Amino acid sequence: MRSLSILALSVALVMVRAAPALADDNGEGLAGETTDKFVTFFSLGVLVFFVLFVVLASIGQSRLERRKEEKKAAATRSRIGW
User: Fold this and answer.
1) Please, which residues have CB within 8 angstroms of residue 44's CB and are 6 or more apart in sequence?
2) How far is the CA of 70 from the CAs of 22, 59, 64, 73, 76, in angstroms?
3) Tell me, what's the pLDDT at 58?
4) Structural domain span for residue 58
5) Which of 6, 24, 28, 54 sits at 20 to 30 Å (Cα–Cα) from 34?
6) What are phi and psi of 32, to 5 degrees?
7) Is residue 20 in some structural domain?
8) What is the pTM of this model?
9) What pLDDT was estimated at residue 22?
10) In a domain, 75, yes or no
11) What residues contact 28, with CB distance under 8 A and at least 6 apart?
């Protein structure tokens, strides 16, 4: 239990200290001035990425499932002797 609380405290400390460490003297981060337009397009990009990832992963999984079923059917046919 002690190690879990130490881990949680360490993670919280790192999260608190990470933002100021990456900031410039005038408060700008690595990407420069953060405007509403930048945040909107970045968030849209993240959304599009995850949607495309789910769609492409589903297509890949369906192709693999179809190949598996075809192999299973071929093995069944060869056992029956068709």
Assistant:
1) none
2) 53, 17, 10, 5, 10
3) 98
4) 53-82
5) 54
6) 90, -155
7) no
8) 0.56
9) 66
10) yes
11) 34
Question: d(Cα 66, Cα 82) in Å, to the nearest integer?
Answer: 21
Are 30 and 22 in contact, with CB atoms under 8 Å apart?
A: yes
* Length of the chain, in residues: 82
Q: Is 63 exposed, middle or buried (0-12, 13-18, 19+ CB in 10 A)?
A: exposed
**Number of domains within the chain:** 1
Mean pLDDT of 1-14: 91
Residue 81 belongs to a domain: yes
Give 28-70 pLDDT, tens digit per residue: 767 777 889 989 999 999 999 999 999 999 999 999 999 999 9
- On whether residue 58 sits in a domain, the answer given is yes
